[in-house]
Structure of Carboxypeptidase:
Amino acid sequence: MISKFLMPLLLAGTVITQATAQTSEAQMKPSPSRLLNIDSSVVTKHAVTIRGQRIPYTASAGSIPIWDEDGKPLAGVFYTYYERDDIKDKSSRPLVVSFNGGPGTPSVWMEIGYTGPRMLNIDDEGYPVQPFGMRDNPHSILDVADIVFVDPVNTGFSRPVSKDIPGSKFYGVNADIKYLAEWINTFVTRNGRWASPKFLIGESYGTTRVSGLALELQEAQWMYLNGVVLVSPTELGIERDGPLNAALKLPYFAATAWYHKKLPADLQQKDLKDVLPEVEEFTINELVPALSRGGSLDETKRKSIGARIARYSGLKDIVVQENNLDVSVNLFWKELLRDQGYTVGRLDSRYRGIDRQTGGTSPDYNAELTAWIQAFTPAMHIYLREELNYKTDLKYNIFGQVHPWDRKNDNTGENLRQAIAQNPFLHLLVQSGYYDGACDYFNAKYSMWQMDPGGKLNNRLKWEGYRSGHMMYLRKDDLAAANENLRKFILESIPAKGQPAKY
């Protein structure tokens, strides 16, 4: 017998399994209480053309519980899972588990902006356009890997089962890693993917998450990965206080100044990738030692170093000197285009903002973030409800309340190093945007260097830079390039049949 809710969907060309249709019936009725069905899914059929090839796939949108030690449910974790239909042998089919960051944001950003089969309508540089909506993503990695996008607790539709569940179960570096590792185990088991090559990808705080998960999955779930991808990585618990913290941001300053044509003529006429190596060498070889001397730095040397900082950052020399050679990122975002009446964006410094007043030491708002929220929010609501048929009155949290977040004992960079060292099959790819001021590209390089101080893992670590910001994939050219690099990384990280995991 076909449910009355299933029939219209079948007539519309959408196929839903009988079991799923029964689960979905409650979801399709109004739910004034806005409660999540913690163990449910809606299944639909689709196709997309990727690199000229038609790819049929099944999309599953739903929730899987996480439980406490006594088997009582703590929360429902929402996910969307894309599985290519014309693959018979899943044992050799890669599975990518994808997270975004915040902490406090769902996987919306990479799902409909980067790797998923459908993407939001934006212009070629990533700015919002109307009408809001969706289109096919011709660069998606679904041709080579199945993908599950996961929303941690209190992001997207994910929720605790009760307000009485303490936030400490979810909201912290290590709590987050622990329960999500359990969830991944359940997902892999339910979907029969234990034999598949497995990859984690995280963006922003999601890089902290997947770096910790790489080791947690090995040690607590006995699940071994083939690859980890860090998109715009955080500091991963790797210390860089004092002079290092002050110095490492200069190459990002230089990239942003180059983009806005604020560098001296001899530098401005060069390509960005010809400018940055010079700035990086100065940063490591001269700026860090100079800042380490603090107040003991010779006055002549101080003026010389300050002049170089001004030259590479596009700032006035007096601004650099008045800030003791350490200009904060907030002041940089406010100061660089102050004479034109604009601020520059934090997560993507190509974006410009307008403040209430020209004076001050930091922007009123993040110009890029307001643009992204404007583009992504309506697109995701349209997509989930109208294309994936996930009907609910539950609020979709683009930013969920997950604070206070326990940041103690963040050893995720070291966790990732251990996981790579212990697992000869495990590879790392780092992707950064040159104009990202929150998780800047040179700090990402520094983290990768420190994760492998002995240089013994170099052949399995790779860094890539793009001419955009935090979400580099929003720029059309970088969407194509970054996905192609992901595709190559996935395929190259799978060992030949019968190859042993040994040194």
